[in-house]
Amino acid sequence: MTLAVGYAYPGTKLEIPADWAPAHPNISALSESRADYPVCGHDSHYPEYRHVVLISTGGGIGSILDASNGAALTALYEAWELADREADDAPAWGPRESSPLAIHHGFYDHATVCADPLRVAPSVLALIIDAAERYAEYPLLDESDYSARELEEFTQCFADESFRVHPSLDESHPLYADALRVATENYLGYSDAGYISRQHVIASWVDAADSGADSPRCAACGDVADYCAGHGEIGDPSGHELLAALYGDEDDQ
Ligand SMILES: [Zn+2]
Ligand SMILES: [Zn+2]
């Protein structure tokens, strides 16, 4: 690990008074950690306190991963901050009038948790170091939060792309729930997060119709295919157009 602790300026080494800092349990804990802790460059800190970045997420391209990690880190920070206030091992050698922990938010869901390592409670620092080390090995802080966001994004993309195939392929369509289920089961996790191609959307609607609850359904009206009176170009131009969009123009279902 790299511990580059500074006073006021990033990159400068922490000047640790020889008589006390080497024995400081937090400095030892950071020194022994597998993760890196650069100096925090934010100028909002009192210059007499030395802040190191303990864990930093997001700031990439504003992806679902960034959004999820940013939200998860913010929630963790709130828990750590509370735990530090209530900790009974808070260091006696540091001033406690302000929290030794801080979080900074920036563009693209960028979130950074930093701390004055000399003032944070060792029990709380241990929790943060544990999270930082896990995050360094596997850059996803909250798997279930990420999955929920991915599903939400995927569902929205399915709705958008279905509408582009044909405007009546919306939530009021009798086969909508089935088509979305087929799409989700088959493509979520295989598509880029939140992305589903038109080809897959069409395949999902066709599959939902062909493998309807008891027997194949008409993709235009949702009726059992055998009972559907048909959707002719003259009688039902919209239904005809919908079938053409899903099955191609040659098909005369
Ligand atoms: Zn900071
Ligand atoms: Zn029909």
Question: How would you sum up this structure, described in words?
Answer:
This protein has 253 residues and is mainly alpha-helical. Helices cover 42% and strands 6% of the residues. The chain has two domains: 121 residues, no CATH class; 104 residues. The chain has seven helices and three strands, in the order αβαββααααα. The protein has a three-stranded antiparallel β-sheet, covered by helices on one side. Helix 1 runs parallel beside helix 3 and helix 2 packs antiparallel against helix 3. The N terminus is likely disordered.
List the helices and strands and how they pair.
Blueprint: H1 25-32, E1 52-57, H2 64-86, E2 101-105, E3 111-115, H3 122-137, H4 143-165, H5 176-187, H6 198-210, H7 237-247
Helix pairs in contact: 1-3, 2-3, 2-4, 5-6
Mean pLDDT: 84
Shape: rod-shaped
Major beta-sheet overview: 3 strands, antiparallel
According to DSSP, the number of beta strands is 3
Order of helices and strands: HEHEEHHHHH
What is the quaternary state of this protein?
single chain
Total helical segments: 7
Query: How many structural domains can be distinguished in the coordinates?
Result: 2
Present as ligands are: zinc ion
Compute the gyration radius: what is it? 28 Å
Strands of the widest sheet, in order across it, are: 1-3-2
Beta fraction = 5-15%
The low-pLDDT segments are: 1-20
Helix content: 40-55%
Helix- and strand-based class?
Answer: mainly alpha
